[in-house]
């Protein structure tokens, strides 16, 4: 079988590409990366430096005509978590109009306008997608699933914490696998038991095994009208109906709570640290130690707003310095820079307390060493990239299982 052609949206510095192309079964034929809030396109610069500029787009995806995007077998992307509510529908035209600047609707537009639709989708987002917005828990996810179903896709999802499967970072994200109705996997899925697919036979079950029968399978139909979902889904309910694993087939939802099953060796923070010399600027100055200890510590204090109102503020203590005998905490975009912070990682070394280096942050996301090192790219920007990135090892596993399923089912 020839390699599967991939379209990589919201590419960042290429995490999806690294994971999928590792085994030679996938080939990225077109990619797009655009950062709207900055004049210099740093992430795109890194992407082109590592993978070349051929078939790479560095303009706003909303401005890219669908017919300029090559046909592909797999569409992938870690799109931003935004408000996906529907602005209006058009009676006499295709599809829906979401709010401008909400990038989910760019994926929807490409899938709806492509005459030869990609057979497979791999999408990634923060896990709060399953329960947003606050006043309509799960509405945004319901809009996505309904619109993908209308476009001919069955979708399975799973919230995955990378550390639960032997990876070095506690990073929890929701992943989606989509199968178009013209694919062999979709045919198999239609005839399968939803429970067996979620626990044993599906893409996530094969790549990331779970303890069987942890939760009872719950099911419900989605409203057929996306506008109805946007306006009224799950109003006034405290909890989202979407659990951490699930399946959407023809608008019918099957969802269950699952727990990870992994008997391999864990990877701890200590294992990814540089053994040689690191930049001296990473070490915490003695005069700043008190600020770090305050920010990391527990607090119960009275604070005042700018308007002059006082309120009681409290928060628990962070582990300081970070435990070396555990997978790391989640990397955030503000990881770089010298300034004291509650959320930046700090490790204890024989030479003193220090922050993590850009290379160490890359290792926590399972990127190649110095993948983001490039003239003109600061260490702070490199840390920002990793705060936005996904864990490459998860994509590797998903790609491997997806390719095997395609091969097996086509036989």
Automatic annotation (TrEMBL):
Mind giving the lineage of the organism this protein is from? Answer: Bacteria, Pseudomonadati, Bacteroidota, Flavobacteriia, Flavobacteriales
User: Which Pfam families would you find in this protein's record?
Assistant: DNA_methylase
- The gene coding this protein: dcm
Q: Which reaction does it catalyse?
A: a 2'-deoxycytidine in DNA + S-adenosyl-L-methionine = a 5-methyl-2'-deoxycytidine in DNA + S-adenosyl-L-homocysteine + H(+)
NCBIfam families of this UniProt entry? dcm
What family is it from? Belongs to the class I-like SAM-binding methyltransferase superfamily. C5-methyltransferase family.
* Annotated protein name in UniProt: Cytosine-specific methyltransferase
What's the Enzyme Commission number for this chain?
2.1.1.37
Keyword Ribosomal protein found = no
One GO molecular-function annotation for this sequence? DNA (cytosine-5-)-methyltransferase activity
Q: Name the source organism.
A: Flagellimonas allohymeniacidonis
* Superkingdom per UniProt: Bacteria
Q: Which InterPro entries match?
A: C5-MTase, C5_DNA_meth_AS, C5_MeTfrase, SAM-dependent_MTases_sf
Q: Name one GO biological process term.
A: DNA restriction-modification system
Keyword terms of this UniProt record: Methyltransferase, Restriction system, S-adenosyl-L-methionine, Transferase
Q: Active site: which residues?
A: 81
What is the enzyme's main class? transferase
Q: What Gene3D superfamilies does the record tag this protein with?
A: DNA Methylase, subunit A, domain 2, Vaccinia Virus protein VP39
């Amino acid at each position: 079988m020839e390699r599967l052609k991939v379209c990589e949206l919201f590419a960042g510095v290429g995490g999806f590409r690294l994971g999928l192309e590792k085994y030679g079964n996938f080939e990225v034929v077109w990619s797009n990366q655009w950062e709207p809030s900055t004049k210099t396109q740093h992430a795109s610069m890194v992407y082109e430096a590592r993978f070349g500029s051929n078939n790479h787009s560095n303009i706003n995806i909303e401005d890219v005509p669908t017919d300029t995007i090559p046909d592909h077998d797999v569409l992938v992307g870690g799109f931003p978590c935004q408000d996906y509510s529907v602005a209006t529908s058009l009676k006499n035209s295709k599809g829906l109009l979401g709010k401008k600047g909400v990038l989910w609707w760019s994926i929807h537009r490409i899938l709806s306008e492509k005459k030869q639709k990609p057979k497979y989708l791999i999408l990634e987002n923060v896990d709060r997608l399953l329960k947003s917005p606050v006043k309509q828990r799960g509405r945004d996810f319901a809009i996505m699933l309904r619109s993908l179903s209308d476009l001919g896709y069955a979708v399975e999802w799973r919230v995955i914490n990378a550390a639960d499967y032997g990876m070095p970072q506690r990073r929890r994200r929701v992943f989606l696998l989509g199968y178009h109705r013209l694919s062999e996997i979709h045919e198999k899925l239609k005839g399968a038991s939803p429970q067996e697919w979620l626990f044993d036979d599906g893409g996530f079950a094969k790549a990331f095994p779970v303890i069987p029968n942890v939760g009872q399978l719950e099911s419900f139909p989605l409203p057929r009208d996306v506008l109805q979902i946007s306006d009224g889904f799950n109003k006034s309910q405290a909890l989202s109906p979407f659990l951490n694993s699930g399946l959407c087939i023809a608008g019918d939802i099957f969802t269950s709570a699952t727990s990870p099953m992994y008997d391999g060796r864990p990877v701890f923070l200590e294992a990814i640290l540089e053994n040689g010399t690191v930049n001296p600027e990473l070490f915490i100055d003695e005069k700043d130690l008190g600020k770090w200890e305050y920010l990391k510590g527990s607090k119960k204090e009275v604070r005042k707003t700018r308007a002059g109102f006082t309120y009681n503020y409290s928060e628990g203590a962070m582990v300081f310095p970070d435990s070396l005998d555990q997978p790391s905490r989640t990397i955030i975009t503000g990881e770089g820079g010298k300034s004291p912070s509650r959320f930046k990682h700090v490790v204890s070394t024989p030479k003193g307390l220090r922050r993590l280096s850009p290379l160490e942050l890359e290792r926590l996301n399972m990127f190649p060493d110095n993948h983001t090192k490039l003239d003109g790219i600061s260490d702070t920007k490199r840390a920002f990239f990793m705060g936005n990135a996904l864990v490459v090892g998860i994509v590797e596993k998903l790609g491997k299982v997806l390719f095997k399923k395609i091969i097996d089912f086509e036989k």
